[in-house]
Amino acid sequence: MQKRTRDYKNSSFPDKKQLVNLKIKAIRSGVWFKVLQRIDRALLDLTIRVVGNIRSVKLAKSILGLRRKLEDGKKSGFSSRLMRIGVPLAQKTSLTGQKLGNLLAKSWSNDSSFAVFLAVMHINDFKGSK
Hints:
Blueprint: H1 16-29, H2 32-35, H3 38-50, H4 57-75, H5 78-99, H6 112-128
C-alpha cells in the first residue's frame, strides 16, 4: 500500500511568517481583542511559537477560520458605517436632485466618493451634536 505524502512547502497552509504578520496587523487595527476570544488568541499564539509549517488539516482549518474572523472584523468598522449611512444618504440626495430637475443627480446614487463624503459628514455632525 502506497503512503500518500503531501508537499507541504507548496501547500496553501499559512506559515509562521504569515501568522506573525496576521497578528501584527490585527493588533494594529484594533481587532485582535475585539474579535477573537481568549482561546482563539491562545491558539494563534501557540501555533506561532511551536509550529514552523502547519501540517495538520484540522489546525489549518482553525487558523484559516481565525483569519476570516479577523478580516471580517476589520471590515466591520468604517465600511459598514459607509454602507449603512453613506449609500442611503447618497440615494436620497440623488432622488431629491432629480426631483429638482438636475439631470446629473441620477449618477450620485452610484458614486462611492460621494457616499464616503456623506457618511463622513454625517458621522462628524452626529458626534458634534452630542
